[in-house]
Recover the amino acids of this structure.
């Protein structure tokens, strides 16, 4: 039988709390960078200039077809051998570049889902390509992209647990450190799991509320 | 409402007692004799105790000790090595993934709350691997010189190295890594000042990166490596104690020590051709 030892856990709450904040921090920073990168790459994929389109496609395909763990190892242990890179920035870079590839696809799909007529109508009114994109197509695409983007952000929060592999002391690594001291895997990891669950659920709820707000004309 | 399902699942998991071990009343020792397989849990990467050679075979001091133990059982019992990550290795033992841990494990009071240990079969202690660009190797240099703010200490997650690092380097910042070679890489690359780990590993690693590191080998803790069995597997533990006593008194231990720590003919077997 597994014997429960919940009583040993509370002494580590301060550590787990600090780690939760670091998970939030790394997730938020990576979401910002990843979204910016993804938006740029997504726009590059739909604009008319072929070399840029090819470049963006290469980026997206490259990072959608290799594991995130490998990206982190390449940055931290590979490039890190000759470039000074802290665990935090290695993880932010890896997560942003990786998630950016998925965001790019979401942005591309969002833009392509808007009827061609919208772009044509805007152009025929004398707007430039950029103006049409900015004032007509992008706002509609953003509304459609929000649900899949939230899904991607939730993924990123969960993927941030891989930052533990490059020794960034976020929730997962601290959970393992605590477990290696009290040897109570269920108690520790159920707690850690509950924290991830709450963060991700909150994120989904906020976005559902935003969605409802944007849906109003 | 959609949240209700996962929450119910969590509560159920928490409430219904969790995993149980195989409920068989046959003792572990009897089962080993019956199946003729001794399942040994190891976490490879800890030279020269457990390593994977260039052919993918498990080799090392512990590997030979485990084979010796199986030989002593007779009846055609053979060893089956089961690899495990380090931090869940005791959980894996308790989950029945293997019967005994032979993986350079130090006995500690905390670990002994979750598994039973045999008598020690090896005595060691913690030593330091130091980045030589950041610190000058001088005769007066001691472990205490590194207990100050700004020093970065790399160590492996969940090991007695981590425990010692947190105890002896309170003012420094501690970095826990996945494997011992990750820790050594941190020191090589200058992202950590020192690595805290068991002396035999530090001694070998310092040889490999002589240009960038040096070692402080005088151990600053005393540690006793032992085998671990599931709590209550006293029959197996008692038998292992007797067999380990034989190992030490028969001269086998000394010849193994010579092979793995002194003559080290195995070095070529783990080296990649490039390095």
């Amino acid at each position: 039988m597994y014997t429960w030892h919940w009583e040993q856990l509370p002494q580590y709450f301060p550590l787990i709390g600090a780690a939760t904040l670091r998970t939030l921090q790394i997730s938020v920073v990576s979401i910002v960078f990843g979204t910016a990168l993804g938006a740029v790459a997504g726009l590059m994929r739909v604009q008319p200039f072929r070399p840029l389109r090819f470049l963006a496609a290469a980026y997206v395909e490259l990072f959608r077809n290799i594991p995130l763990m490998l990206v982190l190892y390449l940055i931290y242990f590979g490039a890190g051998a000759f470039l000074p890179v802290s665990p935090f920035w290695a993880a932010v870079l890896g997560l942003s570049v990786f998630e950016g590839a998925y965001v790019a696809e979401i942005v591309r799909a969002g833009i392509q889902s808007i009827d061609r007529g919208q772009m044509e109508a805007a152009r025929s009114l004398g707007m430039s390509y950029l103006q049409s994109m900015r004032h007509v197509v992008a706002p509609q695409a953003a509304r459609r992209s929000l649900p899949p983007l939230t899904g991607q952000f939730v993924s990123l929060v969960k993927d941030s647990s891989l930052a533990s592999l490059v020794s960034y002391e976020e929730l997962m690594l601290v959970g393992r450190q605590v477990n290696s001291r009290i040897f109570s895997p269920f108690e520790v990891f159920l707690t850690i799991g509950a924290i991830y669950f709450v963060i991700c659920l909150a994120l989904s709820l906020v976005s559902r509320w935003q969605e409802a707000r944007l849906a109003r004309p | 409402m959609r949240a209700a399902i996962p929450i119910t699942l969590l509560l159920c998991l928490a409430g219904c007692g969790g995993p149980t071990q195989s409920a068989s009343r046959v003792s572990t020792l009897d089962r080993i004799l019956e199946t003729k397989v001794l399942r040994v849990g190891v976490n490879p990467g800890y030279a020269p105790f457990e390593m994977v050679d260039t052919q993918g075979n498990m080799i090392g001091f512990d590997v030979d000790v485990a084979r010796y133990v199986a030989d002593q059982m007779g009846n055609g019992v053979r060893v089956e090595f089961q690899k495990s990550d380090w931090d869940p290795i005791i959980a894996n033992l308790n989950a029945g993934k293997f019967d005994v841990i032979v993986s350079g494990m130090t006995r500690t009071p905390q670990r002994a709350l979750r598994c039973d240990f045999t008598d020690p079969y090896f005595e060691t202690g913690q030593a330091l691997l130091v980045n030589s660009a950041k610190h000058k190797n001088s005769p007066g240099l001691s472990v205490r010189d590194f207990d100050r703010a700004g020093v970065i200490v790399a160590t492996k997650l969940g090991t007695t190295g981590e425990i010692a690092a947190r105890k002896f380097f309170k003012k420094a910042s501690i970095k826990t890594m996945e494997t011992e070679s990750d820790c050594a890489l941190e020191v090589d690359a200058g992202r950590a000042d020192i690595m805290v780990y068991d002396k035999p590993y530090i001694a070998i690693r310092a040889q490999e990166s002589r240009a960038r590191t040096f070692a402080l080998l005088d151990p600053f803790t005393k540690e006793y490596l032992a085998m671990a069995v599931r709590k209550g597997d006293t029959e197996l533990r008692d038998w292992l104690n007797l067999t380990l006593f034989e190992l030490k008194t028969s001269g086998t231990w000394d010849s193994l020590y010579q092979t793995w720590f002194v003559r080290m003919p195995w070095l070529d077997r783990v080296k990649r051709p490039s390095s």
Chain B has a mean pLDDT of 89. The first strand of chain B starts at residue 37 and ends at 42. Chain B has two domains: 25-123+225-270, 126-221. Residues 126-221 of chain B form a domain with the D-Maltodextrin-Binding Protein; domain 2 fold (CATH 3.40.190.10).
